[in-house]
Amino acid sequence: MKNIVLCGMMGSGKTTVARALNAIYNLNWVDTDDQIVGQYGAINGIFARLGEEGFRDIESAVTTSGAQACQTSVISLGGGCVLRKINVEELKKTGVIFYLRTSPETVIKRVKGDTTRPLLQGDLEERVRTISANRAAVYEGAADYIIDTDDKSPERIAELIMERMQK
Any idea what DSSP says for residue 133? Predict the structure, then answer.
């Protein structure tokens, strides 16, 4: 089986669904944001030091090495990872990409009060709606499959992913 790659907006449930896939199907999982934090420090700090482009460079390096190292695993991506075409190309070599499509309203509910996301500083609702609108086509273009996550439990989303992986 290829890797299962989860992409989507911050707050779409990528990490939570990866945990469900691990718990239910005993699949290893890697979270690229966790790997970045482990190697380079807090994401807010990276943004402050290097800006978004510097962060994306680090993210690309971590994504490429993760895609090459993982086998039959779940890879949970940061929200902006698929903005770079090279990342999508590397991930597709070893994995199947699932876009966890989530409405802006649901994302807003999930990330309200979270101060660790540098791109959501300021007017949260406006930032989420703008980023969501700007990235929707990129997520859809990167995805092999799209799963609408609103009103679905992480366990149900995990089941839908495994059904598609077995086709």
Answer: H
Nearest to 104 by CA among 136, 152, 77: 136
| φ/ψ of residue 117, rounded to 5 | -110, 100
* Exposed e or buried b per residue across 132-141, where buried means at least 16 C-beta atoms within 10 angstroms of its C-beta: beebeebbee
Q: pLDDT tens for residues 85-140?
A: 999 999 999 999 999 999 999 998 888 766 556 555 667 788 889 999 999 999 99
What gap in Å lies between CA 72 and CA 59, rounded to an integer?
A: 21
- Contact 74/95 with Cβ under 8 angstroms? no
Residue 26, φ and ψ in degrees, nearest 5: 55, 40
Contact 43, 116 (CB under 8 A): yes
Contact 107, 10 (CB under 8 A): yes
Question: Three-state DSSP class for 9?
Answer: coil
Measured between alpha carbons, how far is 116 from 11 in angstroms, rounded to an integer?
12
Give the predicted TM-score (pTM) of the model.
0.91
Q: Is residue 124 a contact partner of residue 28, using CB atoms and an 8 Å limit?
A: no
